[in-house]
Amino acid sequence: MIRRKLISDTVTSLLNAAGITHPAVDIKRLAQTQGAIVVEEPHDEQTSGFLFRTAGSPPVIGVNANHPPSRKRFTIAHELAHLLLHIKSGVHVDYAIVKMRDSRASEGTDEEEMEANRFAAEVLMPRGFLEADLAAHGPIFADDEKAIASLAKKYGVSPQAMAIRLSSLNLVWM
Amino acid sequence: MRDPAQQTFYKALGARIREIRAGRLSQEQLAEAANLSRTSIVNIESGRQKLLVYNLFQISKALDILPSQLLAPLQPSSSDIPDIDAASDAAAWVQRSVKKAIQSQSPPP
Question: For residue A18, is the peptide bond before it cis, meaning its omega torsion is within 30 degrees of 0?
Answer without folding.
Answer: no
